[in-house]
Amino acid sequence: MKVFLDANILFSGSVPESRIAKLIKIIKQHGECVTNLYAIEEARKNIERKKYGSIQGLEFLLGNISVSNELILNVSVKLKAKDIPILGGAIAQKCTHLLTGDKKDFGYLYGKRVENVLVVSPKLLAEDMVSRGFIAKK
């Protein structure tokens, strides 16, 4: 399992005790988390603008996450220009999953594969991890 973390996931994960931070920790135990500088910079801007999370929390989160600048800019689905580097980063890094909470722009792709990358919400990924036995069902 190689999971690309979108900017909004990094943003939410910058709060160490958040559900997203806990999910990322579980992903790291059973696979790999990756992202790119584009997602990191977007997360930083949102932390500063929305006064949620912290840059220190983001830096801590990024401590064990691979960061790459590899991108594919010609994706096979219709996305806003700002979202292409996210999906293109996941494809270029040969990820199994793109984890994004951006339902507005990626919601129509939830549960679908684009260039072998399964686009998932945190809920969909958590359900998948429960079915694999990575997370105990409550």
In short:
The protein is 46% helix and 15% strand.
Classify the helix fraction into a percent range. 40-55%
Strand portion, in percent? 15-25%
Instruction: Tell me the distance between the termini.
Output: 23 Å
What fold name goes in the CATH topology slot?
A: Rossmann fold
Radius of gyration: 14 Å
Mean pLDDT: 92
How many DSSP helices?
A: 7
Please mark out the parts with pLDDT under 50 across 5 or more consecutive residues, or reply none.
none
- The CATH H-level superfamily is 5'-nuclease
Counted up, domains total: 1
Shape: globular
Structural class: alpha/beta
What are its keywords?
138 residues; alpha/beta; Rossmann fold; six-stranded mixed sheet; 6 strands; 46% helix
What does this structure look like?
With about 140 residues, the protein is of the alpha/beta class. The protein has a single domain (about 1-130), classed as Rossmann fold, CATH 3.40.50.1010. The protein contains seven helices and six strands, in the order E-H-H-E-H-H-E-H-E-H-E-E-H. The protein has helices spanning about 5-15, 20-30, 35-50, 55-60, 85-90, 105, 120-130; strands at about 1-5, 30-35, 65-70, 95-100, 115, 115-120. It has a six-stranded mixed sheet with strand order 3-2-1-4-6-5. Helix 1 crosses helix 3 (about 35-50). The chain is globular, with a radius of gyration of 14 Å. The protein starts with a strand and ends in a 7-residue tail after the last helix. The model has no long low-confidence stretch (mean pLDDT about 90).
